[in-house]
Amino acid sequence: MDILKRIAEYRDREKKLVWEGTFADYLDIVKENPQVVQTAHSRVYNMIAKAGVETDSQGNKKYLFFSRELFGLDRSIERLVEEYFHSAARRLDVRKRVLLLMGPVSGGKSTIVALLKKGLEHYTRTDEGALYAIKGCPMQEEPLNLIPRELRPELEREFGLRIEGNLCPSCRFQLKEEYNGRIEDVPVVRVLFSEDDRVGIGTFSPSDPKSQDIADLTGSIDFSTITEYGSESDPRAYRFDGELNKANRGLMEFQEMLKCDEKFLWNLLSLTQEGNFKAGRFALISADELIVAHTNEAEYKSFIANKKNEALQSRIIVMPIPYNLKVSEEERIYRKLIHQSDLADVHIAPHSLRAAAIFTILTRLKESKKQGVDLLKKMRLYDGESVEGIKDIDIQELQNEFLDEGMSGIDPRYVINRISSALIRTDANFINALDILRSLKDGLDQHPSITPEQREKYLHFISVARKEYDELAKKEVQKAFVYSYEESAKTLMDNYLDNVEAYCNWQKIRDPITGEELEPDEKLMRSIEEQIGISENAKKAFREEILIRISAYARKGKRFDYNSHERLREAIQKKLFADLKDVVKITTSTKTPDENQLKKINEVIARLVEDYGYTPASANELLRYVGSLLNR
Ligand SMILES: Nc1ncnc2c1ncn2[C@@H]1O[C@H](COP(=O)(O)OP(=O)(O)OP(=O)(O)O)[C@@H](O)[C@H]1O
Ligand SMILES: [Mg+2]
């Protein structure tokens, strides 16, 4: 019955948040905590800032408010927060513009808006995000708007804040009729935003553009009371229940904004320009809210191509939200989507999602004009890997080469759909990279928006992803064949380094067991160096470079280890694998393993299961596959 207890606790918590008092009481709150009167934009910005920011060594920022749900979009988010939310919070003009998120399908636009909405619901329940309104106001109006214009400068000086809004028609009426102008008596309540209750958060979704009624945005005449009050300009005969009303002080999502008829959009002009809108027969109504819309690139382009939209266009701030371009982040997206779906219990063999992500990212990248940076290398650089032969390349420079990189390509939902359909087709209880790549390939034929040229290109990317996977698979199996891989690599490296040191210093090496003095083991050193193509002539320079690296590490008090020198690590790995190659090849491909081979296979499978995240079945399949690769 724990859940009943939790429900009761929840109710208590919500009850504690209830506050009601008079305008006079509210003034005391404002004096103590002027934050409660902040604008909608400033509240949103503070909510985002409060969740925290991480800055990496290159100065890139990660806003934690978004980064728990959205992966690989840090650059776009940073721009969105800084250029829009931060400026808007400082009352710069951008806050009067509609924020338009523009990006490809399934790129995370709706998720950004959903995070803001959920965030606000929560934030208004905290002390920092608290806000108050005139009781009973359909637009949860800021109580300070009750103060007449003449008196505002004085109050603003005393409290150091700004009061901008006009009292809404309904509150104006109440003040006069019910409270006889006694502002101090007007009741004030604390407001908790809730999308379900339509408080502070609104969503507008256009219906048929021709018959769209502006009332959905700004409210409408209340036909049940109009006869009673006799006039359309009596606020009691009007329902202030449009999305713009309901979202006052908070956020309104404008879905499919550019699909709306342009005449309809004109109504937004005054709101975005002057911060107020027209409803019925009333004076302009002030609104303090963030309006977020989203659209795709094609729709946006045709919108701006239309001259008639110029005025609107200047009232919109467009923020591009391109796809993520990092393989490892793409994998996280799939994991998240799989976790949320009914695929969650299926075993997906290691590296499968990576293979899919490699394909997807390749479809999104644009070929750089820089020398030596092909698509695959660019993909690696973007993902933070260092790439052989490319040093000191400025990633930012690559990123700035194309403004619209990431605006097209394969979307994450497509990949998840293909994984689902791969699952349906298999009778095994797992799927691996090959199943997924095959399914991605088959799906291209059914994909509605792929041209024949694109299809060719995509097929090529699938084969690139397949090759990348093959390398990963081989490495995995070879590693699993080495008893304690890390340790073997370390031993081999220490051995190599001892010899290199002796060689460079013209010294001998002492055999640890016999104590005998020996020449450095040239054969061993060469067998490692040859793995990465170091010629006889270049060996001395290479060895010296390694020694210099070691002493540089020592000076900084850092330990030189297996991962400290990229190329050396690769050489060691290749050497270990080369020694094993025949064993692996024979063991994995034999149809009738002898007793020893069988033992080895079982050992390797056990290691794959224990240390590398396979199931016995998927490990078996991997061995078979790698066996066939090695025998090609
Ligand atoms: N970069 C990302 N990080 C995490 N999840 C993502 C990312 N991009 C997309 N997703 C996920 O993919 C799904 C689709 O994204 P979302 O609905 O936000 O896209 P959208 O841009 O609104 O697409 P549409 O144009 O189709 O409306 C969501 O579940 C979202 O969480
Ligand atoms: Mg969407």
Automatic annotation (TrEMBL):
Gene Ontology molecular function: any one: protein kinase activity
One Pfam family, short name: PrkA
Keyword vocabulary terms for this entry: Kinase, Transferase
Gene3D superfamilies, A to Z: P-loop containing nucleotide triphosphate hydrolases (3.40.50.300)
UniProt keyword Ubl conjugation present: no
Domain of life, per lineage: Bacteria
Domain named PrkA AAA: residues: 21-372
UniProt cross-references to PANTHER family, sorted A to Z: PROTEIN KINASE PRKA (PTHR30267), PROTEIN PRKA (PTHR30267:SF2)
Full protein name: PrkA family serine protein kinase
Organismal lineage: Bacteria, Bacillati, Bacillota, Bacilli, Bacillales
